[in-house]
Design a protein that fits this description.
With 168 residues, the protein is of the alpha+beta class. The protein has two helices and ten strands, in the order E-E-H-E-E-E-E-E-E-E-E-H. The strands form two sheets. Strands 3, 4, 5, 6, 7, 8, 9 and 10 form an eight-stranded antiparallel sheet that branches. The chain has a two-stranded antiparallel ribbon with strand order 1-2. Strand 5 and strand 6 form a beta hairpin. It starts with a strand and ends with a helix.
Length: 168
Amino acid sequence: MQYCPKCGNKVKEDDKFCGKCGNTVERPNEDIRPLEGEESIEIVSSEGISTLERDRELSRLSGSKLEKYLTDGEKLFFTTKSPVQAGGEQQLHGYVTDSRVIFYGRKGFIIKSDRFIEIPFEQIKSYKMVETGTIFKKMQLEINDLRVDGSRSDILRLYKAIQTQKVA
């Protein structure tokens, strides 16, 4: 099942336009493959992100140095748009792959150090989203004992990505 990159509405595989907003639905080109010996990182989204957004995600991922922590064949399904706070560590980006949830960031200006938290899906016993506040609402995601704070949209999308991959 594919989703419209503009409004998120479900579209059928043979649809060329979204039935809700009229946006053109892009189809991935199955014939394009990486050259032999060339590494590739595949970004797939249950939300059907556009090619332009996919290129931006690849560009941001390449700059983050996260790829050195991905295993061969591991597929990246989601990245947060803005940094989150996970386990007391600030300025981490959240990533969901086909096998785990990763929080990664780099610290320092001259001497850089990596900050890396991973939770394999088989080790996730519980995860829940909590909304707090009445006027100034905040969203938190709790994965086992790890608390993740961030923007409302990133926490919602992160929760949905975990839910989708955990079921798959």
